[in-house]
Specification:
The protein is an alpha/beta fold. The chain is built from 15 helices and 11 strands. Bound molecules: glutamine.
């Protein structure tokens, strides 16, 4: 699609400029929230990035920001900057559906820790973004409510499962957003929609109040139109949380402090297995050009092998489905959300509720996951998958003895047509080949725009780092972004 001359449009500005405008009183936080809703009115009928809007909360936060500006009080870095959050994060008193009919009318009784952090940082939450049901999918087509369109071509998918969060940012409906990533669900939609998306180290951001899909893989992370905003949002929501026993108790560095330093001498390993067969030639070309760009920026490039890549999909889908089948057992019509009407027995109520409340993909995963965990099959499937998971982790440990960061495509293709893979789950699962090992190993990964295909659809570059290397990864991404123009292009909707 054509490049829009929209750089000046308020909806595509990033937080640095907007903060300046707020502090200079050229615009108020209330007006920024107004702008966000105006843009949603303009484009969301077509794109359907949102499941629900949270106007009351957004305006309340904006009002507090404006009050503080009036008296020249301290303002956190992202105060007043409109955000969208994926609708699998609990927000008190608001609908939290996880994209599922089973939670259609569920009102969360409490706030997720990330929501609490956004409130403390005075970041107005504009609404809850669409997703694949329980974050299971790569296209956002598995939502029980809407099919979200990609702003670069609404006939194609935005990627998933955080499709709504990526679209909100890409289309200028909000400035930043939060997604969650279990096997690629932040990085893949970021890549398909031409924005930046980061999956932090497992445990960096609290999962308290995130509706669980696969607890040992799930991680919340930031999405934005540039690396700096990604860093600022990561900063705002990271940190230890006693409510999440897997959260890391280590101080959060200042992610923007070293962002602008150069990367001379940085050792980057190109993952050989991810630039071979099955990767679309246009994606390959864009990634190869990015490698050249990193060389120009002073990085040292080497080829690196992650030999167990061939087992990645099988391993991930056994682990993820096993955990999902266990996590989703709680949705039985008793405590949460939907309950099937007119049933005669408790067993009938359970079965009808689950049969009517869950979509096909979720049912498929519950069945396969239950099978993998069942007595007699546990050792053959679940235990084996856990063992291979350890081997994959060791592949990465070995790679990081050799290099500082790893580089690969985010996805073998660019955005595909809506409906083109819905009857073929396996081809959908293959979209995750470059991303899901990062979750199996608990590592941080980022997607940054690195090109466009011949149809004008965005291509994403993935950087992967060792545990808690977010600072370095952001710096490498920032240097690349500043040396290229990909992030300056916006979709014309
Ligand atoms: N596409 C992968 C899946 O369907 C990853 C999803 C995610 O990261 N939430 O499981």
């Amino acid at each position: 699609m054509a490049e829009g001359k929209v750089e000046d449009k308020l909806c595509f500005r990033t937080s640095a400029g907007l903060r300046n405008a707020l502090l200079k009183k050229e615009i108020s936080a209330k007006e920024l929230v107004d702008e966000s809703y105006k843009r949603i009115d303009e484009v969301d009928d077509k794109l359907k990035a949102f499941i629900s809007l949270t106007r009351e909360s957004a305006y309340k936060t904006a009002e507090e920001v404006d009050q503080r500006i009036k008296i020249n009080a301290e303002l956190p870095p992202l105060a007043g900057i409109p955000i969208a959050i994926k609708d699998n994060m609990c927000m008190q008193g608001c609908k939290t559906t996880a994209g599922s009919k089973i939670l259609e009318n569920f009102l969360s009784p409490y706030n997720a820790t990330v929501v609490k952090r956004l409130e403390e940082n005075l970041i107005p939450i504009i609404g809850k973004a669409n997703l694949d049901e329980f974050a299971m999918g790569s296209s956002t087509e598995n939502s029980a409510f809407n099919v979200t369109g990609n702003p670069w071509n609404p006939k194609t998918v935005p990627g998933g499962s955080s499709g709504g969060s990526a679209v909100a940012v890409s289309a200028g409906e909000t400035v930043i957003s939060l997604g969650s990533d279990t096997g690629g669900s932040i990085r893949l939609p970021a890549s398909f929609c031409g924005v930046v998306g980061m999956k932090p180290t497992y445990g960096r951001i609290s999962r308290f109040g995130l509706i669980a899909f696969a607890s040992s893989l799930d991680q919340i992370g930031p999405m934005a139109r540039n690396v700096e905003d990604t860093a600022l949002l990561l900063q705002a929501v990271s940190g230890h949380d006693p409510m999440d026993s897997t959260s890391i108790d280590r101080p959060v560095p200042d992610y923007t402090a070293t962002l602008k330093e150069d990367i001379k001498g940085l050792r980057i390993g190109v993952i050989a297995e991810m630039l071979g067969e099955g990767i679309n030639p246009e994606v390959k070309d864009a990634v190869n050009a990015s490698i050249k760009m990193y060389e120009e920026l002073g990085a040292k490039i080497e080829e690196v092998s992650i030999p167990h890549t061939k087992y990645a999909i099988a391993t991930y889908y056994v682990v993820a489905m096993a955990e999902a089948s266990s996590n989703l057992a709680r949705f039985d019509g008793v405590k949460f959300g939907y309950r099937a009407p007119d049933t005669d027995s408790l067993m009938e109520m359970y079965t009808k509720t689950r049969a009517e409340g869950f979509g096909d993909e979720v049912k498929r995963r519950i069945m396969l996951g239950t099978y993998a965990l069942s007595s007699g099959y546990y050792d053959a499937y679940y235990k084996k998958a856990q063992q291979v998971r350890t081997l994959i982790k060791k592949d990465f440990d070995r790679a990081f003895e050799q290099v500082d960061l790893l580089l690969s495509p985010v996805c073998p293709t660019t955005a595909f047509d809506i409906g083109s893979k819905t009857d073929d789950p396996l081809s959908m699962y293959l979209m995750d080949i470059c991303t899901l090992m990062v979750n199996l190993a608990g590592l941080p990964g980022i997607s940054v725009p690195c090109g466009y295909d011949s149809k004008g659809l965005p291509i994403g570059l993935q950087l992967i780092g060792p545990v808690l290397s977010e600072e370095l990864m952001l710096r490498a991404a920032y240097n690349f972004e500043q040396a290229t123009d990909f992030h300056k292009k916006h979709p014309q909707i």
